[in-house]
Amino acid sequence: MAKTIGIIAIKGGVGKTSCTANLGAALASQFNKKVLLVDANFSAPNLGMHFGLFEPVATLQSALQGKKPIQDTVQEYNENLHIIPSALEANPIKSPFLLKKKLQALKKYYDIILIDASPSLNNEILSTMIASDELYVIASPDYPTLSTTMRAVKVAKQKKTPITGIILNKVRNKSFELSVEEIEKATGVPVIGFLPDDIKMLEAVASTKPMAEHAPNASQTIEFNKIAAYMIGEKNYEDNGIIASIRKFFNKNLQKVELNRQINKEADKKK
User: Number of folded domains in the chain?
Assistant: First the structure.
């Protein structure tokens, strides 16, 4: 049965959807996992667009409204990576429990189900929290995002869905950015991903391809691979290049994130 992971953020613009798309692609391409991506951002769906699905006929809403079996809404990007897109509709989801019920029929076909959540604190994000076995929060290293991340952590705890880690995105390594330790101290959640800001991501979105295909050797792509490895408990994805070694040596934040991944993996093994 698939592990269901919710990718959440209570703030637009942090790159939640692009992270969901690329983590799914990394799991499928680098670790040969059967992955299903689900667009549960009903208010502003665009996960499918990252893979060239601009006007899907069958959508998640079709299944939630009982118009189609959920199996009929699945779109195949490649053999290992499938997507359930959403449509922009005026009617919001009525029951936050319905998504979990519908996805149950698909869990036996996949290793991992990644849900791209809505950034709105309503039934949309609650449906992702309820349907997920664990959650990851996408954030950027600034105070406005930190405040919304703290709110997301609080709501997730109330709903008793554990937040496994925070993934920092769009990091520019500037002195004015919040450090990993500052974010962890404020939220009580470990930072397990550290994604550098990269214009190649914009290029990949424009080409409707994941970073694994568009720029397989980019630093951001390597970090996606490392986060994906952490998600499934695999041996850490190694990057032994000279540039990566130099970057890690001079970046205390990156060193801390690597340590977090190692410590948490060892702790999981002892459970």
Answer: 1
Decide: pTM greater than 0.85.
yes
Give 249's pLDDT tier (boundaries 50, 70, 90): very low
Residue 134 pairs in a beta bridge with: 5
Q: What is the CATH number of the domain that holds 9?
A: 3.40.50.300
**DSSP 8-state class, residue 132:** -
Q: Is the dihedral of CA 258, 24, 128, 54 positive or negative?
A: positive
What's the confidence (pLDDT) of residue 1?
A: 87
Domain region containing 105: 3-270
Distance in Å from the first CA to the final CA of the chain: 20
| Burial track 181-208 (b if 16+ CB lie within 10 A, e otherwise) | eebbeebebbbbbbbbebeebeebbeeb
Tell me: the pLDDT tens digits for 172-226?
A: 989 999 999 999 999 999 999 999 999 999 999 999 999 999 999 998 999 999 9
**The predicted structure's pLDDT at residue 267:** 64
pLDDT of residue 106: 97
SS3 179: coil
Phi, psi angles (nearest 5°) of residue 168: -80, 130
DSSP sequence for 72-97: GG-EESSSSEEEE-----SSPPS-TT
The 3-state secondary structure of 224-235 reads: HHHHHHHHCCCC
Which pair of structure tokens corresponds to residue 20?
A: 């969901």
Q: Are 31 and 229 in contact (CB under 8 A)?
A: yes
Sign of CA dihedral 104, 189, 265, 211: positive
| pLDDT score recorded for residue 270 | 61
